[in-house]
Design a protein that fits this description.
The complex is a heterodimer of chains A (874) and B (110). Chain A is an alpha+beta fold and 874 residues long. Chain A contains 30 helices and 23 strands. Chain A is elongated, with a radius of gyration of 40 Å. The mean pLDDT of chain A is 81. With 110 residues, chain B is α+β, with helices and mostly antiparallel strands. In chain B, strands 1-3-2 form a three-stranded antiparallel beta sheet. In chain B, a hairpin with a 5-residue loop joins strand 2 and strand 3. In chain B, helix 1 crosses helix 4. The longest helix of chain B is centred in the C-terminal third of the chain and has 25 residues. The two termini of chain B are 19 Å apart. The mean pLDDT of chain B is 85. Classes of the chains: A alpha+beta (874), B alpha+beta (110).
Chain lengths: 874, 110
């Protein structure tokens, strides 16, 4: 039997479950229901049917409640919390409120957190952009996957990019696998004239016409087929073309290159070369211009060559096929083997070694470290402060929060901090970027156009950082039992202290490691600076030689020597720092008949005097001996040693230089010069031979008096303009040229300085926060100790002792790691410092000092505080 | 059937107009509205109450719990002065809409 009253009661109870329906509303609805039932009953329905109908008429409690809620609420959305949208779950607003309140109330800690994360993210973004740029080199070529550079690998595993002229064309002719080949030679400079305009061009390349078919340098004017179609054709970059022709059409115009006494027709204009291309030129002419016979030679190792393999060809297989090509064409004595280097590796593995790519790795690791340290700070401070928030967690849990919700809340707070830091970091990066670009020689843009990928990466990174930094605190905080936290605070005070200790130690270990590395890099750089190089190029001015000056060089020299400010004048084919050519020599009395590979260059009289190089045996080139210009040579100590000669003076040697006449290839040793570092200290001193051969003199070197540089330079200019009319006067100092060899190391050193400074700063931030927290906790303990008669130093040592312990442990962990990393780096240098204990001592001292300074601020404040204040409320 | 949007728009003037003839309670208000429209106005009965609540909050009507003649507890609603003003305003608006539409529809054969 249907009980109407019971059904109505039931219905009323259902309505009451709805949060928005207050008692009065429910009653009103109940009377409505009764009226409706009465009406239905008069229409002849039975009670049950009437009830069901009436309930239907009134409609769902859910919607009625929501309508009431809308009328009563001040919420903007008007939606009751039990009908929330997915994107804005219930308590999010409250979480935000609490998070901002926390930040406002604890300005110090929030500042440390945000500052640390901002620095961390800034470093990370900067290094990330740099790495991205490094990795982007040469990737704009459409056929990049099939383009390879040819290298020569020598038996000890090193590789060189100067292969012979003949190799590329031979491969293309003999092997079906090669679709195109191209020789590219950075050829040098020349004065270039067009009508009445003339400029000194420094960066002229020579290449085969296939260049534009292999590489994707878009032509603005001309086609890949028509560019370089004539032996005397030249292709310009947009910028160079504009320099000569302005808005005129450059195609078909004639440029005169004075260095090579030829007229070149412009056959193409390419877009300016992007900065992330390892091939950089202003003008490109045909390599055939060097002469057919020279190009067909197997014995001249100067040009780099590129090949375009056919689709599907495996470079490894091809390498094994061509491995004996030198032996076939030159002779069985050749130890070089040609190998292929992927185009996109050329920049990162410059000259066949991995210096650059290791730098990329090193900085990526540093970036991760710095960000990690900032995250550790966040974790530490958040867990340390957990005592203060344990009550909040307790209340939330008592009211019904699930652990999941608490975790979400604290993760959200971490994300919020990370997001604020990201915004600040972007501002920092944007304002630092110009200096960073200047420093690294790049033109990186943070947000170029709508760089969606970068924005997405940044957001993902921030998300990752926030989640990582928030992971431990949120799990830790959410684990609190409400009964305990609400009863007493002391129970959780020391919870998590172990993890905090470990995190601090990790942080300090990273700092110590970076400091140690910085010190090693700095001492190696100092070593390079102070190394006795065996030659002195202070106050040596370099001038570019030119075809007009060359035949009149002696007259130019005598004019210069009349000036009091000029000590010596000489000329040579290369800068001593850039000597790169090597040649095989044989000599009389050679016991094995194996040829020796030596570096060589050609110089003028007074070369050794100008560079203050010591002749150990024999004599230097001299005008008193007329034969010197034809037959004399001077070797260095290493050459003498490797040739096995105690008294090499008078020995005849044979230099198989293809460009020299047979009669000139024979020379007699007239002197031995002390070993000198011609190249950077990365490489071992090689055997070296000096000859005299005037036609090749590319540079003039003038040693001047350091006390009147300006005046002397003006005099040199007058003399130069007299003897080389029409050539612009430009000069450089030799020490700059020398230092340029170490730009990479110098950059590394400076960057290391900065990053280790930042890392120390970040770890100190964290330490500062923790120290302040711990002393705050110990206020009462310190107060009681003072009352009982503890001294100020005693109290300071009490707090400091713990921190010192951590720093010591961190040092012990970091030393072996830093040692092995630095040993690896130093192996790059043939001449290097040893890593002494001093470096580690200094790193330890420095970190201890900084840690103590940071901690003692708080300890002192605590120690000098009046115990009455701290104990008053007990 | 009258569309939902139009029902929602007409609820306020409808209630106020019904109350013009004297105080009444929710159930009766709905019955009247339904009868007047010949069943063409479809309301979910329960949804009336939040609307009454809102009108009361806005000061257009006032409510009072009373025991009815049948001995049942009922909440009676009465029009306030403000409610009258609001109704006048609503009336003007509805009439102007009505006038405009009637003019447009005049030529149509009925």
């Amino acid at each position: 039997m249907f009980d109407l009253e019971k059904a109505i009661k039931e219905w009323r109870r259902e309505l009451r479950k709805n949060e928005a329906l207050e008692d009065g509303y429910v009653e009103e609805l109940v009377t409505h229901l009764r009226d409706e039932i009465d009406r239905q009953l008069t229409e002849g329905l039975n009670r049950e049917e009437a009830f069901v109908r009436a309930v239907e008429e009134i409609g769902g409690a859910e919607n009625i409640g929501a309508e009431y809620y809308k009328t009563n609420t001040r919420r903007l959305s008007g939606n009751p919390p039990w009908q929330t949208r997915l994107w804005m779950p219930g308590l999010v607003a409250s979480y935000f409120k609490v998070a901002f309140r926390k930040m406002k109330r604890q300005k110090g800690y929030s500042f440390i957190n945000i500052l640390g994360l901002t620095i961390g993210l800034s470093c990370f973004i900067l290094i990330g952009l740099w790495v991205k740029d490094e990795l982007s080199f040469d990737r704009f070529h459409q056929k990049k996957d099939r383009i390879y550079r040819l290298l020569n690998r020598i038996p000890d595993g090193r590789s060189f990019s100067s292969v012979t002229y003949a190799l590329g064309p031979a491969l293309e002719e003999e092997y079906f696998e090669v679709e195109e080949s191209c020789r590219v030679w950075p050829w040098g400079g020349s004065l270039v004239k067009y009508l009445n305009k003339s400029f000194e061009e420094e960066n002229i390349y020579l290449a085969d016409p296939s260049f534009f078919k292999i590489f994707s340098f878009p032509l603005i004017k001309g086609t890949p087929e028509s560019a370089l179609d004539d032996k005397y054709s030249v292709v310009l970059t947009e910028e160079t073309a504009h320099k000569y022709f302005g808005d005129e059409d450059p195609i078909g115009k004639i440029l005169h290159l004075t260095q090579y006494e030829g007229d070149f027709k412009v056959t193409g204009v390419i877009e300016n070369i992007p900065l992330n291309s390892h091939l950089r030129f202003d003008m490109m002419a045909r390599v055939d211009f060097l002469g057919e016979d020279r190009l067909a030679r197997w014995g001249e190792w100067v040009a780099s060559s590129y090949v375009l393999l056919r689709p599907g060809v495996s470079p490894a297989n091809f390498e094994t096929q061509i491995a004996d090509i030198y032996k076939k064409n030159i002779g069985p004595e050749v130890t070089y083997v040609p190998v292929l280097q992927q185009l996109t590796d050329v920049h990162l593995y410059e000259f066949g070694h991995s210096e650059r790519v290791r730098k990329v790795y090193a900085f990526s690791i540093i970036a991760v470290f710095i960000l990690l340290m900032a995250c550790i700070n966040f974790m530490n401070l958040a867990t340390a402060q957990s005592a203060k928030r344990s009550q909040e967690v307790g209340i939330r849990k008592v009211i019904g929060a699930m652990r999941r919700q608490v975790v979400r809340q604290f993760l959200g707070e971490a994300l919020l901090t990370a997001l604020i830091s990201l915004v600040l970091a972007l501002i920092v990066v944007e304002s630092v970027l110009p200096y960073f670009n200047q420093f690294t020689g790049k033109s990186i843009v943070l947000l170029s156009g709508a760089n969606f990928a970068v924005i997405l990466t940044l957001l993902l990174m921030t998300l990752g950082t926030g989640l990582f930094a928030g992971s431990y605190p949120s799990i830790f905080l959410s684990s609190f039992q409400p009964a305990q936290t609400l009863k007493s605070r002391s129970m959780i005070r020391n919870k998590g202290a172990g993890i905090r200790k470990i995190l601090i130690i990790v942080q300090f270990a990273i700092s110590v490691g970076l400091i140690a590395c910085t010190l090693v890099v700095a001492s190696q750089l100092r070593f390079i600076q102070n190394q006795d190089l065996g030659l002195d190029w202070e106050h040596v001015v370099i001038l570019n030689n030119n075809p007009i000056l060359l035949p009149r060089f002696d007259a130019f020299k005598s004019l210069l020597l009349t000036y009091p400010g000029i000590r010596d004048v000489t000329a040579a084919a290369q800068l001593p720092t850039q000597v790169g050519q090597s040649i095989q020599i044989n000599w009389e009395g050679n016991p094995t008949q194996d040829m020796l590979s030596v570096d060589y260059t050609v110089v003028d009289y007074d070369f050794f005097e100008t560079f203050d190089m010591k002749i150990l045996q024999g004599r230097s080139f001299s005008k008193e001996f007329a034969a010197d210009e034809k037959t004399a040579c001077i070797i260095n100590e290493t050459a003498a040693k490797q040739m096995g000669l105690e008294n090499p003076v008078g020995t005849n040697i044979y230099m198989a230089h293809p460009a020299w006449e047979e009669s000139f290839r024979l020379a007699q040793v007239i002197g031995v010069v002390r070993d000198f570092h011609a190249r950077s200290l990365h490489s071992v001193i090689r055997p070296f031979v000096f000859r005299m051969y005037k036609p090749w003199h590319q540079y003039a070197f003038i040693k001047i008096d350091g006390s009147r540089i300006q005046k002397t330079l003006a005099q040199i200019q007058v003399a130069f303009e007299k003897h080389a009319p029409g050539y612009p006067f430009s000069f450089a100092f030799m020490d700059d040229a020398f230092n340029r060899q170490y730009t990479s190391e110098r950059q590394l050193g400076k960057l290391f300085n900065w990053f280790s400074l930042l890392s120390i700063f970040i770890s100190c931030l964290g330490l500062f926060g923790l120290a302040s927290y711990i002393t705050e906790q110990k206020t009462k303990e310190i107060g009681i100790r003072k009352v009982l008669g503890a001294s100020v130093p005693g109290i300071i040592s009490l707090t400091a002792r713990e921190f010192i312990k951590w720093v010591v442990v961190a040092n012990l962990i970091a030393w072996p790691i830093a040692y092995s990393v630095m040993r690896l780096w130093l192996q790059e240098f043939a001449y290097r410092v040893s890593i002494g204990p001093l470096v580690f001592g200094m790193a330890a001292g420095l970190t201890l000092l900084v840690a103590l300074a940071t901690v003692s601020y708080h300890s002192l404040r605590a120690a000098f505080a009046n115990p009455v204040d701290s104990l008053r409320y007990e | 059937m009258v569309s939902k949007a139009l029902v929602a728009a007409s609820t306020k003037p409808m209630i106020l107009s019904i109350l013009l003839s004297g105080e009444n309670y929710g159930y009766k208000i709905i019955q009247k509205a339904k009868n007047l429209s010949g069943g063409k106005l479809e309301w979910s009965d329960g949804m009336l109450y939040p609307v009454l609540h809102r009108l009361e909050k806005d000061g257009c009507i006032r409510s009072e719990w009373k025991i009815s003649d049948e001995g049942r507890l009922r909440k009676y609603y009465r029009l306030t002065d403000k409610g009258r003003e609001e109704l006048e305003e609503e009336r003007k608006q509805w009439l102007s809409v009505h006038a405009a539409l009637s003019q447009l529809w005049k030529p149509l054969p009925v």
